[in-house]
Specification:
mainly beta, 7-stranded mixed beta sheet, 4-stranded antiparallel beta sheet, 54% strand, globular
Length: 115
């Protein structure tokens, strides 16, 4: 059974940085496309960033381009989301996904950016 666990959320001031981590177990990590989604308070969940199986192709929603970086470490079965120059509108619960024949989701980690 595949498990996805996020960590690294917290409270940060605007302009600050956080790195979210995503640990995947129970599957063949190198076969997964990895992604990050977020859900702000009272809003729908939306896609933030994606990374292909090889780690060579990355994709970002427009609002985070140039500020967020998605990456993976297949040796550690980990994915990351480096978030720089954070803004209050980045406040959300962030979810990691591992996508293969099925999609697997973590429980989310809270990111709060104060003005």
């Amino acid at each position: 059974q595949v498990q996805v666990v996020e960590s690294g959320g917290g409270l940060v001031q605007a302009g600050g940085s956080l790195r979210l981590s995503c640990a995947v177990s129970g599957g063949t990590f190198s076969s997964f496309r990895m992604g990050w989604y977020r859900q702000p308070p009272g809003e729908e969940r939306s896609w933030v960033a994606g990374l292909d199986e090889s780690g060579s192709r990355t994709y970002y929603t427009d609002s985070v381009k140039g500020r967020f970086t998605i990456s993976r470490d297949d040796d550690k079965n980990m994915a990351y989301l480096q978030m720089n120059n954070l803004k209050p509108e980045d406040t959300a619960v962030y979810y990691c996904t591992a996508a293969g024949l099925s999609d697997y989701w973590g429980q989310g980690t809270q990111v709060t950016v104060s003005a």
